[in-house]
Give the backbone structure.
Amino acid sequence: MPRTTAHRAALAAALVTPVLLPLWAAGPARAHGAPTDPVSRVVACSPEGGERAGTAACRAAVGANGAPFTAWDNLRVANVDGRDREVVPDGKLCSGGLPAYRGLDLARADWPSTRMTPGTTLTMRYVSTIPHTGTFRMYLTKPGYDPAGPLNWSDLPEKPFATVTDPALTGGAYRIRITLPSDRSGRHVLYTVWQNSSTPDTYYSCSDVVFPEAKQEQPEEKEPERKKEKEPEQKKPGQKAEAEKEEPAASAAVDDSPGPRPRGGDETPLASTSGPASGPSAPVLAGGAAAVLLLTGGAALAVRLRRR
Ligand SMILES: [Cu+2]
């Protein structure tokens, strides 16, 4: 569709369905995108990252970077054409090898993170205001990954666990249905590669995620308490049924619902934030951010679109 139409559609959707981060507060003109759920390092540590931006990891990242991550949605490399492993050097996966984002490559185990449950199906959000066509490839670091070391290509499986082409852009974000591998525990990096087909660019993102620590192999009956604790937090009722219904679909399915069709998990984050800035303030932050967006998002976005 023509760009102006797309912009109008994106704006309309943005006004109906707020995202959970104040990404569209007044700021420099921008386009492109980055994952917001699970939140990417560049978004978490951007000036719009809220509490997360104040964490030790983000402060160190900005320090090492020498400049703030204002252009959180502009982490892209031209003309890679799928040769990610040749073009992006080991240890520099999170910056895409771009000096302007080098702070994101710091090897540390305390980046703002998102809790996840192995084997679950969920909807990733990748915020964007200007639509591009292309394919998203999602990788998860291998079992045994050491988050205290640099992220190298050998830490990622050869093949992505999910691949989605041209997902729906609703509410200002691409909705990407993924089913997580079931054999991860502890802290990992969800590495997202968005290879555009409508531009020469490929976008790279690191989202830090934390799975429950591995437990001993035990009969299910032995762990009822822990399970009960986790369920309501991770998904709303109905989400599970839906995930089961969709299985055994491929490891990822495009969420192509055209409108605000009610579905479990779309109104609330599927996974909650953890890490140094976690706690009861997270929902409050999200709610406040949504309000901020409702008040300022439309105007800021309109200004931005006009600038384009
Ligand atoms: Cu772009």
